[in-house]
């Protein structure tokens, strides 16, 4: 373990990897759709396509067989200033079909109409069965070099910079569902290594519902919308989900995580990732270790409150993907350290009594610390969502030399399933030739033909052995970089359908999870169980899940039962003695505020409320955050000051903290006929501002006040002495303390928990 002392960040390599984006000029407020301002009138002079925005990137320009082309980055983008057919024939009209006279029938000979409509009819491909809703971005991974004693994979060597593409996703919802639903999140990264592609297909929850992949259709069918009505969408608060998990108790540990705050992350940027399974690493000497992969966000782990998540789902269903894209555009590049927990590769494949092949179990970090081995930086948005994010194809079997699988039965089913699903989604076996999936290593696979074959194969002998092609391709050996499965011994026994005895413990780790939470996190967990079970219609489902919770923890069961108005049952199994794992909790540390959104409420008709805002905005921006000015009307407020939000368009859920530079009076549109948020009782302050302050306070967010802004506090029923409300003489004084408080994510002590 000595080789895993905290490694220094390979700063020079990382700086070099991201230096191309260091001099980009980004707009003060990210999210502008185009790369140049749009003119008021439609352009009349022909010009070619505008360049992509500075924050965007496309897949590298490689051939279908992995060779570098040296072509320009825009070689795959649209060319020329005139509209053409797909074969490059210029068109003079695309607004009118070819007809027999202005009022006559459309002619079958209209080849442009047929091409345009036919392509439109086939624009969509099947969405993913799971993880359909996602967002992906480009980045770079830099190895620290301290993993080489356990793994020979070249991308982990010191200073090696590897291009990556990372896709975040929800699991259950369709492509059109909301981002902030209560669900597990996918965290999948494709490493384009020089030794072949490595896909680390992870989740933000370290355990899974099932131990054997044969049960995967069951859990997904149970979690998906009911088949008769196709509702509810992207939710677990319904009868079929709870019917399954209350009878299939090996799901209990995952259910605990899913009912916790982990299932409603504040941002993809503030989300841990876990490889779930145990993998086998092989070093250059052929020695092996067992490991679990972890992604640790540099911004810390942080979640939404449940009311926030519900509001956001209606106000901005694209909240998480917008947050990710805007952070990258503004230069607040998300970062994670890749870490591993290392275990001896013993025949039993266990550690401290924990079965490493059981995907419903974790190894507490206190028993096996996570050792950082590299840094992931996401620094480029996609150029085209469909071509990149929608067509990216991950597979847990994409492994470079040095990384191998273990005998985890869930992992084995995934090794089959990931390849199989691409055949339906991406139209055939050549999905790895789509630009976003193309490897960055030479390919000579002897795989031929099929739908969407992009490679133009030479030679006449796509078989082995051959002499007609000079024997090419030849087999590689260990010394020439071959992937060789480690010859692990195979368990002896008869063919049978059953699980090992160690898989039978379904309650000790869920109990450990509950005992590891802080009081406020326990409150949220109780609330989530009560809400979800309260949405079920079948009384038997609720009572059965209470029996499960009784075996986890009597206190948890009693609190949920009280919320449901049901008696708490007695446990049917003795409660295990467990030690809490502090690493499970999200609360208690201090984190950087990079990429946070700060709302600043001003009075557009009071110049005094604008005093000091120029300096304040510069301070916020310099701190890696984004300031947004909120006023009664949009547009120019003062020289260099523009209101990016109005009381009509703003909502508290968009901001991590709100600063009150004024208590603006009701604006002309502060009437229910114009804005439903203005339906509060009449007051001296615009009711939308009052609502914003009330929501921020209720959601434990920091509030800063100076000038006349204190009047808005009074109208909202808050007090300058309340926790997390900073009152000062100047914007600079106030924001200094606000920024400090943001390090804890929220003002958790504002609402003391009732659970110990």
From TrEMBL:
GO terms for cellular component: cytosol. It catalyses: 2 H2O2 = O2 + 2 H2O. Residues 61-73 have a biased composition (Low complexity). Keywords: Heme, Hydrogen peroxide, Iron, Metal-binding, Oxidoreductase, Peroxidase. Heme binds at residues 128, 167, 216, 414, 418, 425. One of its GO terms (biological process) is response to oxidative stress. SMART domains: Catalase (SM01060). Its EC number is 1.11.1.6. Pfam families: Catalase, Catalase-rel, Catalase_C. Residues 84-472 form the Catalase core domain. Its cofactor is heme. The keyword Cell division does not apply. One of its GO terms (molecular function) is metal ion binding. Residues 24-77 are annotated as: Disordered. It comes from the Bacteria. The active site is at residues 131, 203. The keyword Oxidoreductase applies. There is a cross-link at residues 395-418 (3'-histidyl-3-tyrosine (His-Tyr)). Belongs to the catalase family. HPII subfamily. PANTHER family: CATALASE (PTHR42821), CATALASE-B (PTHR42821:SF1). Decomposes hydrogen peroxide into water and oxygen; serves to protect cells from the toxic effects of hydrogen peroxide. This is Catalase.
């Amino acid at each position: 373990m000595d080789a895993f002392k905290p490694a220094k960040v390979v700063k020079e390599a990382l700086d070099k990897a991201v230096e191309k984006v260091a001099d980009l000029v980004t707009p003060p407020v990210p999210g502008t759709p185009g790369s140049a301002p749009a003119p008021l009138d439609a352009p009349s002079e022909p010009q070619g396509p505008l360049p992509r925005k500075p924050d965007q990137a496309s897949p590298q320009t490689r051939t279908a067989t992995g060779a570098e082309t040296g072509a320009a980055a825009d070689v795959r983008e649209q060319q020329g200033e005139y509209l053409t057919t797909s074969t490059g024939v210029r068109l003079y009209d695309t607004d009118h079909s070819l007809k027999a006279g202005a009022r006559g029938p459309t002619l079958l000979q209209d080849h442009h109409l047929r091409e345009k409509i036919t392509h439109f009819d086939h624009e969509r491909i099947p969405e993913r069965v799971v993880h359909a809703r996602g967002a992906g971005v480009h980045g770079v991974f830099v190895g620290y070099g301290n993993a080489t004693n356990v793994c020979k994979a070249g991308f982990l060597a010191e200073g090696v910079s590897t291009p990556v593409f990372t896709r975040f996703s929800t699991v259950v919802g369709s492509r059109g569902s909301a981002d902030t639903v209560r669900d597990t999140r996918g965290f999948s990264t494709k490493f384009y290594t020089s030794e072949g592609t490595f896909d680390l297909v992870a989740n933000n929850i370290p355990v899974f519902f099932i131990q054997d992949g044969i049960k995967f259709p069951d859990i997904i069918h149970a979690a998906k919308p009911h088949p008769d009505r196709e509702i509810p969408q992207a939710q677990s608060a319904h009868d079929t989900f709870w019917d399954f998990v209350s009878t299939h108790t090996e799901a209990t540990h995952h259910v605990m995580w899913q009912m916790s705050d982990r299932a409603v992350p504040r941002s993809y940027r503030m989300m841990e990732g876990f490889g779930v399974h145990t993998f086998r690493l092989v070093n250059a000497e052929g020695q092996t270790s067992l490991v679990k992969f972890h992604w640790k966000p540099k911004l810390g782990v942080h979640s939404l409150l449940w009311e926030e998540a519900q509001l956001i789902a209606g106000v901005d269903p694209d909240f998480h993907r917008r947050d990710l894209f805007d952070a990258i555009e503004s230069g607040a590049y998300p970062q994670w350290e890749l870490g591993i927990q290392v275990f001896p590769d013993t025949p039993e494949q266990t550690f401290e009594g924990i079965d490493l092949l059981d995907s419903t179990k974790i190894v507490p970090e206190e028993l096996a610390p996570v050792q950082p081995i590299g840094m992931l930086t996401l620094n480029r948005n996609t150029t085209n969502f469909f071509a990149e994010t929608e067509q990216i194809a991950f597979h847990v079997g994409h492994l470079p030399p040095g990384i191998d699988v273990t005998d985890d039965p869930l992992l084995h089913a995934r090794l089959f399933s990931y390849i199989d699903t691409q055949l339906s989604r991406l139209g055939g076996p050549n999905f790895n030739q789509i630009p976003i999936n193309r490897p960055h290593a030479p390919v000579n696979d002897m795989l031929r033909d099929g739908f969407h074959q992009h490679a133009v194969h030479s030679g006449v002998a796509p078989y082995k052995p051959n002499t007609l092609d000079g024997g090419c391709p030849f087999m590689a050996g260990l010394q020439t970089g071959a992937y060789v499965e480690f010859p692990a011994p195979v368990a002896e026994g008869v063919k049978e359908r059953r699980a090992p005895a160690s898989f039978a413990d379904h309650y000790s780790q869920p109990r450990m999870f509950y005992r590891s939470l802080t009081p406020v996190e326990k409150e949220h967990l109780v609330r989530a169980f009560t809400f979800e079970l309260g949405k079920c219609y079948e009384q038997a489902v609720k009572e059965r899940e209470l029996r499960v919770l009784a075996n986890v923890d009597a206190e948890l069961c009693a609190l949920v039962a009280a919320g449901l108005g049901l008696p708490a049952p007695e446990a049917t199994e003795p409660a295990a003695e467990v030690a809490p794992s502090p690493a499970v909790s999200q609360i208690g540390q201090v984190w950087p505020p990079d990429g946070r959104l700060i709302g600043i409420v001003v009075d557009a008709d009071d110049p005094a409320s604008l005093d000091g805002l120029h300096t304040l905005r510069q301070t916020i921006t310099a701190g890696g955050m984004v300031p947004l000015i909120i006023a009664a009307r949009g547009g120019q407020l003062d020289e260099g000051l523009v209101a990016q939000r109005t009381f009509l368009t703003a909502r508290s859920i968009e901001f991590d903290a709100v600063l009150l530079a004024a208590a603006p009076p009701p604006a002309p549109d502060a009437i229910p006929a114009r804005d439903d948020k203005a339906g509060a009782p009449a007051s001296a302050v615009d009711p939308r501002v009052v609502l914003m302050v009330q929501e921020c306070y209720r959601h434990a967010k920091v509030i800063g006040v100076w000038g006349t802004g204190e009047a808005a506090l009074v109208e909202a029923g808050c007090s300058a002495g309340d926790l997390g409300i900073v009152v000062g003489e100047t914007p600079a004084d106030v924001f200094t303390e606000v920024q400090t408080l943001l390090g804890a994510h929220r003002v958790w002590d504002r609402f003391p928990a009732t659970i110990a």
